[in-house]
Amino acid sequence: MLLTTQLPAQQPLQPNIDLSGMWRFQLDPMGFGKTPGSELYLDKLSETIMLPGSTDQGGKGIKNSARYVDRLSRKFEYQGAAWYQREVVIPTAWAGKEIYLDLERCHWETTVYVDGKLVGMDERLSTPNRFLMTPLLAPGTHTLTLCVDNRLKYPMDQWAHGTTEHTQTNWNGIVGRMALQVKEKAHIQQVKVSTDVPAKQIEVAVKLSSLKVGQKGRLDLNIREKNSSKVIATRSVEIDSLSAASPIRQTLSMGNGMKCWDEFSPNLYELDAVWNVGETQDTQTVVYGMRSVEQGKHHIRLNGRDIHLRGVLDCAVFPLTGYPSVEVADWKRIFSTVKEYGMNHVRFHSWCPPKAAFTAADELGLYLQAELPMWIKDVGQYPARRDFFEKEMYAILDEYGNHPSFILMCNGNENEGDFAVLEDLVKKAQAYDSRRLYSASTARTHTASDQYYVSHVTSKGWITTYEGKPSTDWDLCKQSDIDVPVIAHETGQRCMYPNFEEIKKYTGVLEPRNFEVFRERLTKNGMLHQADDFFRATGAHTVLQYKEVNESLLRTNNSGGFQLLGLADFPGQGSAFVGILDAFWESKGLVTPEKYRESCAPTVLLARLSKRTYRAGEKFRAKLELYHYGEKAIKAQKLNWTLVDEAGVAYRKGSCAVRTIQPARVDSLGVVEVMLDGIDTARKLTLKAELAGVKNEWDIWVYPQPAVTDSDGFLYTRSWNEEAKRWLSEGKNVLLVPEKAEGRKARFASHFWNPIMFNWNPMIVGTLIRNQHPAFGQFPTREYADWQWFDVLNGSTALELNNLKEITPIIQSIDSYETNQKLGIAFEAKVGNGNLFVLCIDPEKNIDKRLAAQQLLVSVKQYVASAAFLPEKSLQLYEVDALFPAVVQQKSDTGKTNQAIQQLLNK
């Protein structure tokens, strides 16, 4: 509150009254508070709440006992009108000034009253709400009443992240800056800075409030480096009342020492616009960066150079508050993490963040794509909704348009309907503000006005990579060759098992009751002791998949980029644990940033391998390439490579000369060729490459030439039959590789997105392997499915072993965390007087090409024939009988899978 009664000449007015603190409060679930006879803005509200904040944080609404498995659970739920009220004292010094109410982020429709009189209503989801209060706020004490209504004003899809319950929640409240701001009658309304990098200059457009006829003023423009006293340019302009009616445009030179803004050098400048009229003064400071954004042939161009977007999605996940942070420090933490993992881009999926996010990205050097809160299937319906989106678009451009990080804008996610409406929005945005590139929608339809296109698929084929392959000698160049830069949409999406240790992190308004339900179901099925093993095995597989997903698009030299889903978990839409980070953007301990950057960074070594498994005596061949979108050229030097075993001992090594490589390209480096001779036992080898401090590696497996396995001492059988039972009754060993078995047809790759939203077979999120078991004596493996398992698991069968309480599978398919069934591809047990080993893989189909499957059979047979084959647990014959009925008819999943793909594409 201001106590000054007189201002000296040329001194700025004390700017605001902070409105944070305790407010009176009342819920209005019936929505009667604005109706005659029930006007809550005329009453003194009876409860209290702290602002900024939400009704959830205030413990207001309905106490929620539901345990949602498809999302986090709010402790308190509320949808409807909520009323907030307090007194404000306007100082006498504010007499004759303009007074604005500034509310940084409300959710959603906000109506303002002063002393029972209506000021106005606004409905922003993406930008601050600002109300002119001058007519009703004379000096003295007043009652300020706000009504915030979070009911959906227009028909909206349940998924759009601006309003969805599945991420930030459809919260009610006011967060961030809350203030009454005072300005002189003659004040600055808006400052827009447009940069011209080739000309080394900027154009400043200043919008002023109107002057009285005959009144004059002086506009001073001063440019300096941010956080520095170094002045770059100054300009003073005399302005009369007629000129002030239109934006004042001035061009200022940045000088020969101009510093550009990009991901490597996020140089920033500050422009002070000072408006002097008589003895009054108003100042606005704008931060900007010198950068130009253009549409290239296949890439977005920044400052005259192609860039490649290595992006992640931000879906408004804020587990502690249930609403987006408005603090720069919070966004710097998130964005610093994004950059630590080699990314340079964030897409805000169907929402737009607060100013703090843009500020943090400006300072750290990160490229942002903001979107309207739009994810709808009936675009073109409901004219009022369409008008809302257009107003929201202009508000976003006005509020955040000066930020250099804001290089892309899209209408929203996977929209469907009348794309002429979406294209109209693009054209209007392009005409209104040409400082970035625009697109009609992520996915679904490419319009003629798109300046870039984010999609799963183009007119030439599928471009989004969800999972890798054993071969890395492929790319998506043909599919990416369209008329605008194309960015792969929502890559990855490999689901893993939840980490129950994460539960204790949820100390805010949202509780992980879905985690608790999953844990209880796991406990009921007797596998809680395996929870951490499930998490780590599936997490390691996701890390492996993301390496290949990322590298496939780095190999694609005409790709405009990719947007990974996700670097962090998505706790809604069925609980999608797809991130190598948790929902708090914190590491799960699965991979270090340094290791992740080997396959995702400005400069990455790449290898094209035809396969991952080899016979001893074969020639190993790898074509090495370099993805280089770094800041500077890499000077000519040697590339070093080594093929090492698991003990780190070099098997072969070499080097090749590499010429100077300029940025913004994918270049061939050379070929590694090695004869894999002298190998008489199964081995895993790793190709390690290094160039100019950049490292990467790829695993291969080499198996000796097949030898005839002595089957003396055990029975190898394809069916559970009387002969197998007789051998067991006689105390002998049996290896059962069933030709037919009731169970799920397993896959190498983990489940897509999550098994609750995409309920398609086999509903398996990964594989846990008891890699120290002697059955793998001749089959080197980790505890998760690495690439040698590709030809083993595809076509294998996972038996449901719920009734076998004492049995822990040796090769265990990890069921969906929703159902938590015990699934096994391989297990062993004492049966009768003998020992049984069950291995449910296909030992015949294309077996001559499936080297790993051959070697696994060799290893298991050697184990079953050995004295080490002594299972600890026992089964009765009837228990094995139940697993292998006499006649089994395998069901085809083709129809269901096709339906699931249609669901993915919203067909």
Secondary structure layout:
Layout: E1 16-18, E2 21-28, E3 47-51, E4 53-54, E5 62-63, E6 73-74, E7 76-77, E8 81-90, E9 98-107, E10 109-114, E11 117-122, E12 129-132, E13 140-149, E14 173-183, E15 188-196, E16 201-208, E17 216-225, E18 231-240, E19 248-253, E20 269-277, E21 280-288, E22 293-295, E23 300-302, E24 305-307, E25 309-314, H1 328-340, E26 345-348, H2 355-364, E27 367-371, H3 383-400, E28 406-410, H4 419-432, E29 437-439, E30 453-455, E31 457-458, E32 461-462, H5 477-480, E33 486-492, E34 510-511, H6 513-524, H7 531-555, E35 561-565, H8 593-596, E36 603-609, E37 613-615, E38 619-628, E39 637-644, E40 650-658, E41 665-675, E42 683-691, E43 694-703, E44 714-717, H9 722-729, E45 733-736, E46 744-745, E47 764-769, H10 790-793, E48 797-800, E49 811-815, E50 823-824, E51 826-831, E52 834-839, H11 851-864, E53 874-875, H12 877-883, H13 894-904
Parallel strand pairs: 25-26, 25-35, 26-27, 27-28, 28-29, 30-33, 33-35, 37-43, 44-45, 45-52, 51-53
Antiparallel strand pairs: 1-14, 2-3, 2-8, 4-14, 5-7, 6-34, 8-13, 9-12, 9-14, 10-11, 10-13, 15-16, 16-19, 17-18, 17-20, 20-21, 22-23, 23-24, 31-32, 36-38, 38-41, 39-40, 39-42, 42-43, 46-48, 47-49, 48-50, 51-52
